[in-house]
Amino acid sequence: MKIVLAANTSWYLWNFRRGLITEYLRRGHCVWVICPDREMEVQLTQLGCDISRVRMTSRTANPFSDFVIFLRFLRLMIMLRPDVFLGFTVKPFVYGSLAAQIIGAKTVGTITGLGTAFIRKNWITRVVKVLYRLATYKMKTVVFQNQSDLDMFVLQKLVSRCKTVLIPGSGLDLYHYSQKPIKRTRSQDAPVFLYIGRVLWDKGIGEFVESARKLKETHPGAQCQIAGKVDVDNVTAIGKSQVIKWENEGVIEYLGFHHDPRGFIEDADCVVLPSYREGLPRSLLEGAAMGRPLLASDCPGCTDVVMDGVNGFVFRTKNSESLLSAMRRFIKLSFSERQQIGAAGRKIVEDRFDQSLVHEAYLKVTTG
């Protein structure tokens, strides 16, 4: 069986869907991936899959440009003739799936999270909803990563409930993200709070920086770190110059971007995600798997991972004061309490988010 997976970056396919690609290949399927860039091309080809590129951008909502993207996908679908097409992220989900449906492929789309179009509601939101409705009309299965997104799509008649499936994210390799002890070399009131992810306003970076600034007034030894890409292809991207300005103020420490964040997590005391909306946040799963307590906003997706007082603390979305209170709440924890919360997070990931569970679910809806 020929299976095609498409996403808006090769990094997404490598970082989030590598295990699924490997599982398809292990079971004898021919796997082809589609993305717009060459960043992880070598790594993906070494897995054993083939690659094609489709140029696309997330910064614009130009109907002509988007129609061209659709034609590029259609040309590839006619050439590849896949049996199954899996679309991840918005434009591959919409245009890739529509193109695959034209040539008769079985299409499975994954809502990886409802981004800017749903957070900052405007005319683009209405257009995106129409496109989702078109794409899902003949789609075999629509995968959601959290119940809130699924219910919203059904309520707004963007998809029929009978087509929906809930699969918890991309899954995590628990051997790769092994539990690591929290370091005792730092003072209890000088912890390291770590954010991992794209540097976007919609990820709550502004609130994180504001909370960090106020926390420094009472806990000057505390460190607030940001690890992730700046100047990314997103309308809410934060430029590197702004991040450097914050760093020069002494408010945050910018760690840059690294494909493997395990070293950053191991050095941290707590993983923070102040996002406005998520599908199922990978950074929280990685932090929990390595035994780190979590701080997360009470938005869809984050609350699917973090249970307040169990494996971390939840704070109000878009509220720097609430985030600051959660940080101070964490600081008051004893070392043994931090260990207990971290261990609880590891257990939750083992029970609910192991990649083997996710892979079996995808195999069922695509090849079953």
Number of strands: 13
The oligomeric state is single chain
The number of helices is 14
Global mean pLDDT:
93
Strand order in space, largest sheet: 3-2-1-4-5-6-7
Radius of gyration: 20 Å
What CATH first level of the largest domain would be assigned?
A: Alpha Beta
Give the helix level as a range of percent: 40-55%
CA-based shape: globular
Structural class by SSE content:
alpha/beta
Domains counted in the coordinates: how many? 2
CATH topology of the largest domain: Rossmann fold
- Please outline the major beta sheet: 7 strands, parallel
Cα separation of the termini: 12 Å
- In terms of DSSP E residues, the strand content is 15-25%
CATH architecture of the largest domain: 3-Layer(aba) Sandwich
Low-confidence stretches: none
What keywords describe this structure?
six-stranded parallel beta sheet; alpha/beta; Rossmann fold; seven-stranded parallel beta sheet; 16% strand; 2 domains
Kindly describe this structure.
The model has no long low-confidence stretch (mean pLDDT 93). It is globular, with a radius of gyration of 20 Å. Helix 11 crosses helix 13. Helix 1 (10-26) links the parallel strand 1 (2-6) and strand 2. 45% of the residues lie in helices and 16% in strands. It has 14 helices and 13 strands. The chain has helices spanning 10-26, 41-47, 63-80, 90-102, 116-119, 123-137, 147-155, 205-218, 240-249, 262-267, 282-289, 320-331, 335-352, 355-367; strands at 2-6, 30-35, 50-53, 84-88, 106-111, 141-144, 164-166, 192-196, 223-227, 253-256, 270-273, 294-297, 312-315. The chain has two domains: 2-171 and 354-367, Rossmann fold (3-Layer(aba) Sandwich), CATH 3.40.50.2000; 192-352, Glycogen Phosphorylase B (Rossmann fold, 3-Layer(aba) Sandwich), CATH 3.40.50. It has 368 residues and is an alpha/beta fold. The chain has a seven-stranded parallel β-sheet with strand order 3-2-1-4-5-6-7, with helices on both faces. Strands 10-9-8-11-12-13 form a six-stranded parallel β-sheet, with helices on both faces. The longest helix has 18 residues, at 63-80.
